[in-house]
């Protein structure tokens, strides 16, 4: 099987490190999915996204002169998003926490107003 930059191929995760995952491709060649190419979100631990011996699809993003093959899962999912559907952007943890705190504060204020009306302490 001839591997070319831009092609989408199947492979099996053969090793996981702090910096990425090694994938054996159909045809016996191996490549690396760098940690920055694992997912759209920040990846602290590759083990949270991939498991040993897991079969995955990857996109070939580079082939070095030394024969090293660079792979991406993230770019594969980006291509799928463009062709299949448009997904709303994910909120960061800080944005979600800010929304939660705002909603919580509003609910507490409503509850206080309701309790004050019932007890006769109208504000």
UniProtKB/TrEMBL annotation:
Domain of life: Bacteria
Single GO molecular function: structural constituent of ribosome
One GO term describing the cellular component: ribosome
InterPro entries in the cross-refs: NA-bd_OB-fold, Ribos_protein_bS1-like, S1_domain
Protein name: S1 RNA binding domain protein
GO biological process, one term: translation
Alphabetical UniProt keywords: Ribonucleoprotein, Ribosomal protein
PROSITE patterns: S1 (PS50126)
Region called Disordered, residue ranges: 104-123
Residue intervals of the S1 motif domain: 6-74
Native organism: Orenia metallireducens
Family that this chain belongs to: Belongs to the bacterial ribosomal protein bS1 family.
């Amino acid at each position: 099987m001839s591997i070319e930059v831009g092609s989408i191929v199947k492979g099996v995760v053969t090793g996981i490190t702090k910096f990425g995952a090694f994938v054996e491709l159909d045809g016996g060649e191996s490549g690396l999915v760098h940690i920055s190419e694992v997912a759209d979100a920040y990846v602290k631990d590759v083990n949270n996204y991939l498991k040993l011996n897991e079969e995955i699809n990857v996109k070939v993003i580079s082939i070095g002169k030394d024969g090293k093959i660079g792979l991406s899962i993230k770019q594969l999912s980006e291509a799928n998003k463009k062709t299949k559907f448009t997904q709303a952007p994910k909120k960061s943890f800080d944005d979600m926490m800010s929304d939660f705190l705002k909603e919580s504060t509003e609910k507490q204020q409503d509850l206080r107003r309701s309790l004050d009306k019932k007890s006769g302490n109208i504000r």
